[in-house]
Amino acid sequence: MPIISENIGDNSHNATRFFLLGRGETEPTGNDTTTLAFVPEINGPGTLLDYLRPFAERGIDMTKIDSHPSGKMGKYLFLISIDGHSKDAKISKAVSELGVICEQIKILGSYKKADIPEGVNVPGTWNGD
After folding, report:
1. Number of structural domains in the chain
2. Which of 29, 86, 98, 119 is 20–30 Å from 60 (CA)?
3. What mean pLDDT comes out for the span 9-21?
């Protein structure tokens, strides 16, 4: 996408990221993130561990997790982002294994990780202070 205007902010460490949504799949770049949504078959204390185990056993780093009520009594929708592309063999195997124990699962997409310049402050991330 073309840049319309640069350096318009009053804080040089701020950054704005945009997501370009489309149909189809991206090809792996070697520096990707995959986001998926799933609704566990069962819920209870400690069961989330069982649903994340396929990723941990394959050394797949999870970079984000959110939970939201699914609209069904006692059921939650989990959104997770993991390092890697959905076409990577270990990601594909982990997602397949998770799919067996989930009520619903959907890969929302794989995309190249953002290139964040040194010194840029990204909201919601830890900067070591």
Report:
1. 1
2. 119
3. 71
